[in-house]
Design brief:
This protein is an all-beta fold and about 200 residues long. It is built from no helices and twelve strands.
């Protein structure tokens, strides 16, 4: 994908970046992805290490981001962010994800398999503040696999109920929504132990 449009409050969009070492000699390579938008610009550094011949076959878990901050969410609402699970190894990756002691946090996927060179898989992480009081909450999404483990820390601040102005109260100033802001993660991609 080379372009897209995200509505205000809409879910993240993914750009799948594939490294093809079939015509490369052994060695180190680098490149830069330039991402431009009406909400700012970003650079993503790409590094590729190509190995000669056949190396040791293994799975390698890669999870981004390592933290999810939902910011401040109103009481009685839901908000969703995305965690990306990838396999940087040369064997199939079998992963599972779980959340402990946080009934307000839900995952739309809890397990999967990614073949070597396969596309990453997404976990949509949803915060539901329906039964939460106004305070800061945190939890951990634990992702385990045959290629390593990775915790993802999740935080959300729940706002108290808004107050409805009574009769005779002067109208409040309506503040326009903030302008679009580009957020890119991760800011560096590393492909290691890729065979020719």
């Amino acid at each position: 994908t080379s372009l897209g449009e995200i509505e205000r409050g809409g879910p993240e969009q993914m750009i799948y970046v594939t490294a093809d070492a079939s015509h490369l000699a052994a060695g180190s390579y680098s490149a830069t992805l330039y991402i431009t938008s009406n909400g700012g610009n970003a650079l993503v550094a790409v590094k590729l290490q190509v190995g000669a011949g056949r190396g040791q076959s293994q799975s390698l878990l890669n999870v981004t981001p390592s933290t999810l901050s939902f910011g401040t969410v109103g009481a009685g609402t839901q908000s969703t962010h995305t965690v990306v699970v990838a396999n940087l190894g040369t064997r199939s990756l079998h992963w599972n994800a779980a959340v402990a002691n946080a009934s307000w946090l839900n995952l739309d996927a809890s397990a999967g398999t990614i073949p070597p060179g396969g596309l990453p898989q997404m976990i949509h992480v949803t915060v539901d503040t329906t039964n939460l009081t106004a305070q800061l909450y945190s939890a951990t999404v634990q992702i385990d696999s045959n290629g390593g483990s990775a915790p993802v820390r999740v935080t959300v601040a729940v706002a108290g109920p808004s107050q409805t102005p009574g009769p005779g109260t002067p109208p409040t100033l309506v503040v326009p929504p903030p302008p679009a802001k580009l957020v890119v993660t991760p800011r560096q991609l590393t492909f290691s132990n890729v065979l020719q």
